[in-house]
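Lab notes, practical 5.
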Amino acid sequence: MPLSAESRADPAVPPTAWRAVGTLSGHAQALSLALMVLLVGVLLTLGSATWIERLERARADVELNKKIDRIRLELEGRFESYIASMRAVAALFAAAGRVSEFDWGRYVEVSSLQPLNEEGAAGLAFAPWLDEAQRSDWEQAMFYVYQRTVTIRGSSAGPAMPVQFIAPRTRMLEAAVGFDLYSDRARREAINAALAAGDIALSRAVTLQDSGDPVPAGLLVLPVQSAAARLSLETARTPALDGVVVLGIRYRDWIDSVMAEQKEHFSIELIDDTDADANVLVGVAAGRDDSGVGERSLVVGGRTLRLRFHVLTAPTTALSVVTTRGTGFFVSIALALMTYALGTARQRAEARAARVTHALADSERRFALALSATSDGVWEWVPGQRTIFLSAPARRILFGRSSSEAMGWREVLRCLPAAERRAVLVAMRAHLRHRQPLDVAVSVDTGAGQTQHLRIRGKAQWDALGRVVRVAGAISDVSALRDHELKLERARQFYARVLDLLPHPVLVKSADHRYVLANRASGEFFGRPASALLNKRTEEVLPHQQDAHYAADDRVLTEGGVVSSEFRVTLDDGRHRDAVITKTVAEGLDGSAVVLTAITDMTALRRTEAALQASLSELDALFRNSPLGMAMIEIDGSIVRANQAFADIVGIDAARLVGTRYAQITPPRFHRLDREKAVSALRNGVVTPYERAFVRPDGSEVPVVLSGALMHDTEGGVAVWTVVEDISERKAVEHALRESEARFRQLADAAPVAIWVADARLRVNYVNRTWQNLIHAPGSGAPTQRWYRFIHPDDLRSVVDTVRATVRERARHSVECRVRGGDGAWHWLLVVAEPRLSERGEVVGFIGCGADITDEKLTQAELRQHRDHLAEMVAERTAQVRQAKEFAENASAAKSQFLANMSHELRTPMHAILSYARLGEEKSPRIAIERTVDYFHRIRSSGDRLLQLLNDLLDLSKLEAGRMEIFARRINLGSTVEEVVREFEGLSANRGIELQLEVATGGAEVEADPARIGQVVRNLVSNAIKFSPDGGRVRLRLAPISLRSGRRVDDAGYIRGVCLTVSDQGSGIPEDELELVFDTFVQSSATRNGAGGTGLGLAICKQIVAAHRGTIYAENVPQGGARFTVELPVAHVPEPDGVPS
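Output from the prediction step:
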């Protein structure tokens, strides 16, 4: 080893040594010196070997601990990989709700679940939570998933959590399908722990239910649940738990998955220290060597696992120790022999050799001590030599090994990349030529995807002539330092980014009130870039406003704590901002005290508060000056506040009303209604309008309409705001109207002529008793919508022409026509019709009367018959008989056609049901399950069609018999129509028919039975699509209208209603069949596109609409096609008893 110049200087010889040498003879002296050299060499060799052996053992211990830590990290990484896969699966089930076998298989293929077995896991599974009633359904569903019988094992009743999906799907893991995880105590405890923590839980030692080895294993459990409250599964099933994701781990496989390269060196014992009694999960074979034992702990899923490492190979003596001992003994013997040989020559040379040996030993000890105290490597190069000295640490740093073979400086340089090699050579030349400092950092690729950072330092030694004697220095591995520097820089950038993303301004001020840090929000608050705030004092940012801020700064700097104050700051552009500024003191990066400042912008809040105060003032003015009575009522019925209009209605001063109970000013007959409305308000949040009355102090009653809404204050209290409208005048008008109506009815029923009232479409809405007696229809005043059925066909045209003339000329017209009575006979009537005109002169209806002139007509007929020839009378009678015969034949044909249609409609689905049932019965043992499911689907479709036909017949019979129940409630008709349109989108798209829905503004809420009204809309839309050509268009329009409030001619009032129209582009309906299509078993003769039916749909629709007090009618569209219109009142009014519809 090259030595420094100082080590080569001759040290002083101890006097005792000279005296000892001088007293001995030549050979004795030589022998004594040789023995001394030998003894010293052996001692040095033994000492050096012992020291090197200790170093090797320490290095081996470090390497052992590194391997143990690496194994622990790999085992922990396995758990992290397991948990990541479980979280991904739990997210899939939580997001999708229900996952099919197909979806699960696709997910397993594209995810990282397949290599779980290679990573030491037995497999992953999902187990849903099942109530007792769901057990049989689950077993039946699993039969189709796994193509075999799957039963829930472990429990026979009660709730269960059977394994349903597995990954990877192997034969060994399929043995666990159906096992009830909740039936085993250890698994149940883990499930409860996971649910309580809302995270991963690890079970106690269990035996997995697959077909693998029955060795100790663990179960990782992760609950799949919503954000609802977490309750214990021991007491009740909560909707928050959908199931669990579990992952089985055989601990021996888990350990072996990371011990492939270390099995020959280590044996690991696994112990569960969670419970009071430690449980050995994985043991070691008896008789193994326990040398080099190390322990590590893992905390997974709430359990503590202890890893105890056993070294399997006995420690061996390092080669360097053996080499040192052999070399030392050899050198010692050689030196002793050389000493003995040279001792006979010269005593001075002998003494010099002793001094050199002593100095060399001292130098070696000092050098070894220096090397042992540092992790840096030492290098030395002497100009002119091809080799370079490298210490053992230097060799390990550069080459990863500590061999003792000599290395050339070119070989050393070749271990560096080309760019780093040039940097080292440039730095060396600059140091040797210009004596610049030799300190260069280089990076070396280790070949494992990692970079090693080295720092090479050195210093040259020059002689008196300026020539380089040697260059020596150190090599340091600064990779850890560089990694820490990079991590520190990333952390600084991360926190700077986080600070910039904060929505609130955050600043840091030094003790001299200068801003040293500001985030992006600070710049936005002050209207300038954040960098422009740095190194600025407060008076530069907020001129003439610094005193209060400096005082707050000084306070937190001296007293500490947190100071919050609200300021109104003025910015450079003159804008004002309200802000709450919070300050506290902290220690800066350089150790000095700094002020942390956080600003909360209160400008928008203060503006909102001002706007709210103004709004409250406006609302208070509206409350005080409203013409409607308003009062706030507590839930116990006490009046909290009332306006003057309310006080005027009840006749009590507004101040005296406070504290008065509602029941005190309410007649007793309304108390029950008020309680029902209060309960409804608590449930729905609103008080629907209803009529009631108040009692004034003088005993008089004031009728009112009351409505309101439920209000909640900030403390959770509940009160009701009521709005009251005085309807005394309206009630008086209604009373007078009822009296007038009663007088009209009495006069009309007493009249000897038939009186009727109709709307503008000539739909009769009132007839008197004379008309009823004429047609023998029971119930006075019942409208007769299809009045044309009673008119003789020969007279129908003249009646229609008379009505058109009345509309055209706005004048009274009369016509003679024949009307069929209840006995089937024809009666002649002289009908007089007079139009009812609106204020704008439009015809809004008709009123008419008919006098029975049958006797006069019979007399005239008899006179004509006597005057005419007998043959003509016979011919007339023959024609009448022929006409009656044709009418009977037509009726018989209609009945036969209906029976034929019904026979076909009933036979077709029944034939399909029997055919597919027979086909499934014959082929089910030989065909796939998909074909069997298809057969059942076709049977069910045919059965649904047959059931729909029977339901139509039953509905029609119930409607005509008056037994159909209507469950009316407030619904949004627009939502019902939109739902129907969505149902028919697929059918219309198949034929290229466009469905258009137009909902006009103004609301579409009606009081109706949603199921029955939906049946009407579906029938109309289905017919429109059926009779429209391919590529056509079906248009639906929903709009509010005004309907007459009554059925009599003098009912001048109107009520709110809703009109629904359904238009198609079909062939339309003949004019004389527009009313007939609503009759039972009647179809339009214009249907030529093959769309058939039973003729029941429109008849059922008409009965349902009539039950809702509405009307339905059909008309042709000028551009082609038909339009069906449904008019419904907003409020549902049931039919009076005894009045037919």
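Observations recorded by the TA: Confidence is low (pLDDT under 50) at residues 1-24, 227-239, 1133-1141. The first helix runs from residue 15 to 22.
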